[in-house]
Amino acid sequence: MNQIHVIAHTHWDQEWYFTRQDSMVLASYNFADVINTLEQDSAYTCYHLDGQMAVVEDFLAINPDYRARLEKLVREKRIFVGPWYTQTDTYNVHGESIIRNLKYGIFSARTLGHAMQVGYLPDTFGHNAQMPTLLQGCNIDNIVFWRGIDHDRHAKSSQFLWRAPSGATVIACAMALGYGAAKN
């Protein structure tokens, strides 16, 4: 029998549907609930917090009393944070900006105890052909993404080796049905 892994997670668009202030209030309630749930219910083993640190820093700025609890869960690898600072559009941005975003995100995540080693980009509308090179430069050997590929025409499988023009490769997983597929 095949195994299915369901990973509790959020994708947090800081200023997409709401104002920044509304988003911060909602994040405060949601992230506090995640921390409380992980501490109180052993059935929830881990949580993936969107791959970007800016929302985590915003949460801690208005909820500093949660820092020690969050650090403990991150160190225990029960909450996964980083490696990005913000989820960037990797198609239209200069490579140096992508590298700095990634390096700062890793640094910020490590201050909490651990940086996730997955190049997680669930909602980026295109990708730089050199992403494998950029990720490998930060010791990340894989990427999980959604947008930016025509699954019907270009992907024989949702898992493949992505080879950059430089020759660098990473293991790629294209989420054929997006980051919210399980809700359907």
UniProtKB/TrEMBL annotation:
Pfam families: Glyco_hydro_38N. The chain crosses the membrane at residues 160-182. Residues 3-176 form the Glycoside hydrolase family 38 N-terminal domain. InterPro entries: Glyco_hydro/deAcase_b/a-brl, Glyco_hydro_38_N, Glyco_hydro_38_N_sf. One of its GO terms (molecular function) is alpha-mannosidase activity. SUPFAM superfamilies: Glycoside hydrolase/deacetylase. The keyword Oxidoreductase does not apply. Keywords: Membrane, Transmembrane, Transmembrane helix. One of its GO terms (biological process) is oligosaccharide catabolic process. This is Alpha-mannosidase.
